[in-house]
Amino acid sequence: MPAGIGVRAVEWVRRWLPDPFVFALLLTLATAATAAVWVGATPLEIAEGWYDGFWMLLSFGMQMVLILVTGYAIALAAPVTRLVDRLAGALTSPGQVYLFVLVAGTLLVWVSWGWVVLTAVLARELASRVRGVDYPYLVAATYLSSNAWVVGLSSTIPLLLNTPGNFLIEAGLLGGTIPVGRTLGSPLNLAVAAVYLVVMPAVMWLVRPRSGIVELGDLVESPDPQPPTTADPGRGPDVAGRTPADRMDHSVVLQAAVALIGLGTVLHRLLSRGFNPDLNLMIFTFLMLGLLLHRTPARAVAAMAKACSNISGIVFQYPFYAGIMGIMMATGLGAAIAAWVASVATPASLPVAAFVLGGAVNFAIPSAGGEWAVLGPPLVEAVRSLAGAVGPAELEARLARVAMAVAYGETLTNLLQPFFLLAVLPVMGAGVRLRARDLVGYLLLPFAVLLVIVGALVALVPIG
């Protein structure tokens, strides 16, 4: 591998990649033009679909925000920050920092996509303590580790398939839920998980910068290079001077009682209904766990205020991407593309076609749930039409393979689509001269390797 390939890629991307919001605007116009040409949509149909789309994913968007915010709040809890301090003291070289962030970040997002913020806080703390760490590369490594969320417990499409009454069931396309054991617990998903945990750190090691290192201190605009941490709101007035309101604000018992009731409810649901978590259960679990870790209402409120400070980009830009999805749905463009892919596919090639399709459409709809809402119905119909006279178990396996193929493809092109960097940059880029274009170049080789390996696994490894 030629030395400096990552740096050269960064220089090329820096010239061509616009701000994520500009990217959204360009994609809006490109999708509108494609709808007009491909399906003959009129300007009024496109405009109405775009407007309606702005409001179609508010519920799902709120779920994504809550996953991020509750994960961030846990990362800011005092027990977690103490753990970060101990970990930071154990690593002494840039190489150790890079590999630790890649592996630890991968393991954390297997628990929840929102826990990428914990990796971001940890990575920034390490960069401030260990000399010689190239900061843009470290941000890229943090973001790459977050890509592994697709094989973990918060993976959107498998959880949606396992949610009772989901839109595919309501439309009559599925007869019931598909359990996560068939998707997340499949040999295929375990193989993809191994790629993220073992192969990706090795690939990122190849593109690390050897010279011209840019450290965190070189980029800091603010006099305080530290990441956001939970400000202790204090103990309030002295005990003798506390009002009843003060005592409630700083009550450990009050918050612990609610948190324990909540966690007990989660445990009961898991034991009585099997380990089949959906998005709502994951969010609720992290919310209750955060309450327990922060101990008092005042500290929980302070943590949530800080956690919410890094969602402005998602709140601002997500409706525009929902609008793009609205164009694809209202004009039939998304269904037409999926139907065309299905029409030229065979039972053997459909999963790979779904993988490529999921990656391509992700540029217009960088949301696994939103993308599945567009591509899911025509792809499920294609699976059924191509399956022939197979049994229910085999049909379910084929449906699960195609769904996971879309999920893998959608997540893969997140490495080139700057939207979800908004979950990392508000933490690692606070007070720092750093843009998406400064680090995406490091992700080009990992993208190419994942495209080849995961595509082959989708085609060859059994789903169950």
Question: Could you give the topology of this structure?
Answer:
Layout: H1 5-16, H2 20-38, H3 43-53, H4 58-75, H5 78-90, H6 94-111, H7 116-129, H8 135-146, H9 156-161, H10 167-170, H11 180-183, H12 187-206, H13 216-219, H14 244-249, H15 252-273, H16 279-294, H17 297-308, H18 312-330, H19 333-344, H20 350-361, H21 368-387, H22 392-412, H23 425-428, H24 444-460
Helix pairs in contact: 2-18, 3-18, 4-7, 4-16, 4-17, 5-7, 6-7, 6-8, 6-12, 7-8, 12-24, 15-16, 19-20, 19-21, 20-21, 20-22, 20-24, 21-22, 22-24
Key features?
single chain; 464 residues; mainly alpha; 24 helices; 68% helix; globular
Please give a structural write-up.
The protein has 24 helices and no strands. With 464 residues, it is an all-alpha fold. It has one domain. Helix 3 (43-53) crosses helix 18 (312-330) and helix 19 (333-344) packs parallel to helix 21. The longest helix is centred in the middle third of the chain and has 22 residues, at 252-273. The model is unreliable at 224-240 (pLDDT under 50).
